[in-house]
Amino acid sequence: MIGIKVSLPIASFRKGMAREYLETHELPPPSTCYGFLLSLVGETDRLAHTGVRITAVVCGNPAISVVLRTVWRVKKTPLGSSGNTRPDYQQLMTNIELIIWLDSSGEILDKEKMSLEDRVRQAFDPERRGSIDRFSGLSLGESTHLINDISIYHRADDTEDNHSESAKIFLLDKEGTTTLPVWVDHVGGEKTRYVTGNIIFGGLTPPDPKFMPIIDWQ
Predict the structure, then answer these.
(1) Strand, coil or helix: what is 27?
(2) What is the helix (H) or strand (E) element at residue 118, kind and residue range?
(3) Cα(173)–Cα(199) distance, integer angstroms
(4) For position 82, what pLDDT does the model report?
């Protein structure tokens, strides 16, 4: 297992069913974290690392504000028609500190294929990261929400950041009250897959992998 520490100045992890009022989840869903890590290692095939377990920890209490912005909805052609835009309210989080936990122990791999965990470690290795071929800025959530910093998380950071008591993590629980996507179908939504769990105060220690969501499209 590996922890990836990420900081962002601004982000919104939009709830899938939100419409006129675009609410944000209080931490990034597993599907969002998975896409982020694929982008980090330059992987464009979403199926490349299914079976990994991923969950996020939000450190501290990011501020939430509301803005009025233009939102695109396809109602008619051509796509650039004025009728496809409308103003909507959106929640934004600011000053976000996260830890993304990644466990590849259950990932199904070919013999010559590196796990996602190994590829993430490669991305931070000064001697190997030059072999990674990726493009565009590194964002979490919307493409305009670029990250500030990213690093491998070390336990010694607990005392430095003093977020242990306020850190919240999403863990699986069949009787939980929170539903988050592990796979998003961007065309129609029929194949979007969800898991149920709870967002709890869990500190900054690595979670038990069996309570971490599995990335799977089936």
Answers:
(1) coil
(2) helix 116-123
(3) 10
(4) 67
Residue 1 is classified by DSSP as -
Pairing of strands 85-103, 2-11: antiparallel
Helix, strand, coil shares, percent, the chain, to 5 = 15, 35, 50
| Residue 12 DSSP code | -
- pLDDT digit string (tens) for 158-206? 545 556 678 999 999 999 999 999 998 867 667 889 999 999 998 789 9
Please calculate the CA angle 147-37-173 and round it to the nearest 5 degrees.
105
* pLDDT band per the 50, 70, 90 thresholds, residue 1: very high
Select from 138, 164, 141, 166 the least CA-distant residue to 153.
164
Q: Is 37 exposed, middle or buried (0-12, 13-18, 19+ CB in 10 A)?
A: buried
Query: Amino acid identity, residue 167?
Result: A
Determine phi and psi for 215, rounding to 5 degrees.
Answer: -80, 115
For residue 12, give every residue at least 6 positions away whose Cβ sits within 8 Å of its Cβ, in sequence order, or none: 22, 24, 90, 91, 92, 93, 141, 142, 145
Q: Residue 108 carries which side chain, given as an amino acid letter?
A: I
In the 8-state DSSP scheme, what is residue 164? T
> Which pTM value belongs to this model?
0.89
What single-letter DSSP state applies at residue 168?
E
- Kindly state the helix (H) or strand (E) to which residue 10 belongs, with its residue range: strand 2-11
The span from the CA of 165 to the CA of 4, in Å, is: 19
